Amino acid sequence: MTQDELKKAVGWAALDYVTPCTIVGVGTGSTAAHFIDALASIKHQIEGAVSSSEASTAKLKEYRIPVFDLNEVDQLAVYVDGADEINRQMEMIKGGGAALTREKIIAAVADRFICIADASKQVDVLGNFPLPVEVIPMARAYVSRELVKLGWLPEYRQNVVTDNGNIILDVHNLKIMEPIKLEAAINALPGVVTVGLFAARCADVALIGTPDGVKTIKK
Ligand code: 5RP
Q: Which residue among the candidates 103, 134, 155, 178 is catalytic per the annotation?
């Protein structure tokens, strides 16, 4: 099976976690795009979606799935999204698609975070995938210097402006032994909007696409 077929399998498997007559939290990326395709097949059974990016919003609208502003929504039963890395504790690196801030906000609102990923995303230690940090543009150089002072290697993601008008620094070569602590430390730097570590709010369920089928891991 190709990696995309594994992504498609988990995108469709996530339908089992969608409660009828509710608004569904929808992530961003190629795996989440498969979930949107799947969601379209039951669109008459749901009220609509809240979306974590302009790209996912456009795809939801193509399917004529109603997209709600998160401020109009009191409660979300599930948020379904991909990941760049996920460890055994269900902590994740996300933001390869630069949508980390909206993803983290929707994940915070949702009762359950369903992570959908192909098996290549499973790791023992987070940090091989460059850790994205969304930064207010005027703070780019300051935040970079602070990250270098801490011994890390940030790289400005060229030609990328997030949906919130900010820039992304990718921090390379990390071995993240204490994800919750690191998440708090990076988030505390002035100018940082969000770091793409999802540790304080990790996944509740992971659907992992393998050649032997979709494996379900629960926290
Ligand atoms: C976007 C994300 C994505 O979930 C992550 O990058 C995984 O993407 P894909 O499903 O394309 O492998 O966090 O900001």
A: 103
DSSP string covering 58-89:
HHHHHTT--B--GGG-S-EEEEEE--SEE-TT
Percent of the chain with pLDDT over 70: 100
- The domain made up of 131-195 has a fold known as Alpha-Beta Plaits (3.30.70)
Listed in sequence order, the DSSP H helices in 122-200 are 140-149, 179-187
| pLDDT the model gives residue 70 | 98
Task: Identify the helix (H) or strand (E) that includes residue 150.
Answer: none
pTM above 0.90, yes or no: yes
Q: Which of 84, 114, 134, 193 has the most ligand 1 atoms within 8 A of CB, as the residue to mutate?
A: 84
pLDDT value for 219 = 87
103: annotated active-site residue: yes
The verdict on domain 3-122+200-218 having CATH code 3.40.50.1360 is: yes
Mean pLDDT for the chain overall: 98
The domain locations on the chain are 3-122+200-218, 131-195
Residue nearest (by alpha carbon) to ligand 1 atom 5 = 83
